Amino acid sequence: MTAGREDLEARSGSATALLRTVVGSTLRPIGGWMSAAGAVELMGALGFPAATARSSLARLCTRGVLVREPRGGVAGYALDPGAVPMLERGDARIFGTPSAASQWCLVSFSFPEHQRSLRHQLRRRLAALGCGTVADGLWIGPDRLEPELAEVAAEFGADLFTGARPAAGLEAALASGVARWYDLAAIRALHESFLARVGDAIVPDDDAAAFALWIRVLDEWRVIPYRDPGLPAAALPVDWPGNASAALFARLHRELAPRAVAFASGVATGVATGSVVDGGEIARPVPASHALPPSS
User: Fold this and answer.
1) Is the torsion defined by CA of 270, 263, 42, 12 positive or negative?
2) Strand, coil or helix: what is 31?
3) Cα–Cα distance measured from residue 103 to residue 160, given in angstroms and rounded to the nearest whole number
4) Tens digits of per-residue pLDDT, 234-292?
5) Residue 2's closest CA among 68, 61, 79, 69?
6) Which residues neighbour 67 within 8 Å (Cβ) at sequence distance 6 or greater?
7) CA pair distance 293, 263, nearest whole angstrom
8) What is the 3-state secondary structure (H, E, C) of 205-250?
9) How many Å apart are CA 154 and CA 122, to the nearest integer?
């Protein structure tokens, strides 16, 4: 795996994170290629200047997400074939509807002190995938995470146990267990922040603004299904905001995603109009009325 290609801990909101979101959500449907000028214009629609866009493009090439590929004498970027499985896994997590966990996976590991860096790496990976902590060397996650956890366990030499469930008569204790294993307050805060920041967003008539709004909504949402991997409703507080935030994301997906792909197709696969002057691209910022409020 190319270092940095699959960065599950990447924060949302940065230019590089938003470009990854553009690549994952719009580049594949339009054929997997975009002109360099078109890529700069798309980043301009998100409010980033040309220099920042070029830096982010270079970073994604270094990380194995994009490759430089001219077509017909036009400089451009294509999706690195090695990045496709990573993006498909992201699709399944971000757009899928997780069934509430009825069974669980357990990951057990023990590293000697001289390999404590590996122990730290494994803990970070498990947390990024949506696992909770039962004990120092024992982590738990819903059974839907089994394929991803099998890869991680094989990579680190950990033991993976599947099909775990509460013993008969202990189902009622699951809620207290989930509350110990997971930081429910932090997960709640993610859902509530998404609802607060996105709930009042107005779907714009302008296609460039619709593209920008969708990319920012998707970039903000994409971290939530990893932190909240489908915990059972019976183990969550009755006022849990997860269903409301998922419904909001699904509605905006329906209303904005097709328009974003259409806009990206018109911009990225040709020479960007009105954005190149004397060899330097001029970014087109998002109208303030269509931008999300800054993160707290």
Assistant:
1) negative
2) coil
3) 14
4) 889 999 999 999 999 999 999 999 999 999 999 987 644 433 333 333 333 344 334 56
5) 61
6) 61, 77, 78, 79, 80
7) 23
8) CCHHHHHHHHHHHHHHHCCHHHHCCCCCHHHCCCCCCHHHHHHHHH
9) 11
The secondary element (H helix, E strand) that includes residue 281 is strand 280-281
Q: Cα separations (Å) of 13 from 124, 191, 228, 270? A: 21, 16, 19, 26
* Least reliable range by pLDDT among 56-60, 96-100, 103-107, 219-223: 96-100
Write out the two tokens for 69: 């590929």
Both tokens of residue 135?
């004990």
CA distance 82 to 111: 31
Q: What angle do CA 208, 209, 212 make, to 5 degrees?
A: 90
Q: Is the pLDDT of residue 136 over 70?
A: yes
User: Can you tell me the distance from the alpha carbon of 214 to that of 120, in angstroms, rounded to the nearest whole number?
Assistant: 35
User: pLDDT digits over 44-77, tens only?
Assistant: 999 999 999 999 999 999 999 999 999 999 999 9
Q: What type of residue is 235?
A: A
